[in-house]
Amino acid sequence: MNRLLRHRWAKPLVFVLCLAPLVWLIWRGAAGMLGANPIEALVRGLGDWALRFLLIALAVTPLRQATGWSALSAYRRMLGLFAFAYVVIHLLSWVGIDQFFDWPTITGEIAKRLYITLGMAAVVLLMPLAATSTDAMIRRLGGRRWRVLHRLVYLIGPLAVIHHWMMVKKDLTQPMIHAGMLAALLGWRVVAALRIRHNRAVPSPEPPCASSCSPPSPS
Amino acid sequence: MLLKSKPDIGESEVTDKRLWLDRRRFLAVGAAFIGSGAPALAGPLANVGKSGWRVDDPSTPLNDVTHYNNFYEFGTDKSDPAQMAPSFFGKAPKPWTVTVSGECAKPAAVAYEDLIRPHRLEERIYRMRCVEAWSMVIPWVGVPLGEVLKRFEPNSKAKYVEFTTLVDPERFPGQRGGTLDWPYIEGLRLDEAMHPLTLLAVGLYGEELLPQNGAPIRLVVPWKYGFKSIKSIVGIRFTQTPARTTWMKAAPREYGFFANVNPKVDHPRWSQAKERRIGEFLKRETLAFNGYADQVAALYSGMDLAVNF
User: Fold this and answer.
1) What residues in chain B have their Cβ under 8 A from chain A's Cβ atoms?
2) What is the pTM of this model?
């Protein structure tokens, strides 16, 4: 698997796959295949994919640790940035298409509707993470501070799930699935952290730190 | 918080709802393709008179009216009702009986034909405003509800009317799950029910109603949010007290008994000031009582509409 993940074409292929939902939505919209209310379908479709990419990005580290596919870590930044991109396009589609730049209504809704407030908070919190995703920024911040900053994603994930949960009218199946996945992904990290603490309590030789070449893990 | 009583059978023994729905959809779509032997789908309605009730805005295209529906009896997606509609015709849509009961002199179980035939069908082009802030313009065919109700002679104790939708999980696959508390119940105050605007609809665009639009008989109350206009009615009951309606039970903070269209009273989670007319890009201003204030505002004089939402 590691060899496959390191293949020359593997990363470009994943990149194209990540773009596919966006292209698919736009294509269906242009072809009149988004139903009677295409604007709502587009905004919600983008929101669904933003949430999915957030979960996918959060799955990289647990998957890598569980399987030993160390090559996965090379994909984490790209998947995280795709999550950010879908979040931003989701927000822009709401502002520019659904509300059509009706700023008084937009600001009023952000302040008044808790689910929109929480969604906006998630966007704002994601911004410093996207801004510090370059190698240069990681070096400037230093691994330790970068890692602490990027723990914000543990707050952003729940915000996104709650944002979706609160806007659903009745059928909570989807948000419950997302919440379950998020709980599993965050729970994994809690267990991993506890295990490390437990191992440290029993003194053991520390392995030399060797993780300064790729973005350090926030977990 | 979710507090649910434990079902008799384990979760693992129940076919996943989505899977089951997909299976039904496959069967239903297949049946629609085969066509032969299945009861006739909706046909044209004869002798429909015009009426003065028509809005000037262009009517929403038939395809949108029949493919974008909130009808949880068929599923929670707005595309579910049109996709699952053939399951409704898995049994003959008629005979269909409506049971009229409660505080009246002549309670009776009446066949659909006998309920409608004594009246003159008329076309009325009404705005339809969903509580989710989208709207349509629909040319309904029906009879004024008040004229039908009078035949059963409601007595002096009758203050409200309660309506019930059919329960039949074979026809309504959505009823196999507990999305809402079945049967779907709606209610009106008697004066609202007797108002000349209130329609008992049997068709739209000159044709009999399709299942996804509430075949064969439904309510249309144009100044109230769409969920008040209950579909596929099998029960009408005159009562002394207001019904506890399905959406009031599901979310009492969000859906009230009156549910009059009101741009000034927000839904707790979104504004009702504007609406998206299906087929339009920019949102429209929502009108008080959905544009029927001249006809119905007097029904609510002296009431605080923010409290009685």
Assistant:
1) 17-18, 63-64, 67-68, 72, 76, 78-79, 132, 134, 179-180, 250-251, 266, 269-271, 273-274, 276, 278-279, 281-283
2) 0.84
